[in-house]
Fold this sequence. Notes:
The chain is 42% helix and 14% strand. It has helices spanning 9-14, 21-43, 45-49, 53-71, 77-98, 102-109, 123-128, 133-141, and strands at 113-117, 120-121, 151-156, 162-166, 190-191, 200-204, 210-213, 229-232.
Amino acid sequence: MDAFRTFDFHRIFFGDLPYTFLLEIVFRTAVMYAYTIILLRLLGKRSMGQLSTLELAIIICFGSAVGDPMMGKDIPIVHGMVVITTVAILQSAAEWIINRNKKLEAFMEGRPDCLVKDGVIVNVSLDKNNLSHEDLYRFLRSKDIEHLGQVKNAFFETSGLVSVWCFPKSDVVPGLGILPQEYAAEGHMKDAGTAVSSGGHFSCTLCGFTRNLAAGGNFPVCPKCGGKEWVSSVGS
């Protein structure tokens, strides 16, 4: 047996097999690719459009099962086909069962969480889903939202997307602006206990709770979340 040499670039790049095996890899890849596309089409649009627990599982299983027969000289293509066909059948069976059992569906898929309710951030839901305020604002900005006073409800769906319900224009109230921090005006934050120099609507930076404060008073601690920083509301 030949002695093993480190940094053998021929072995690293091409391996020890004949160059003609590269053509076999192309053939194996084409066959597995075509078969995988057929299976995904049979599974339907739902499995390709959402990333629930089941969809994530099938992606991982497919990636592992499809890759090995593509370039493994000792792994027959039929073995790879059997694996991904079995995975596809199990996926379809699991979805059929889950769709007919609400408790199992809730366990496997989870439930949507309310992130914003009537213009106020539900911080418990943010913490539960490991989301920052900036994550939420980024989602809302993608929906053309300018401030939280426009938002009646925002739900973090089990697919990882955020669904937003807005108030009618006639019902929109002043709310916390959601501009990125670097675009906010300097010195715009006011600490609890400091004097209100000019009256108007102000929003808690932690939850978005908004109230009208008169000049001459002091900024309070937020009665909703205990936050101690306020900013001028947008839309007032």
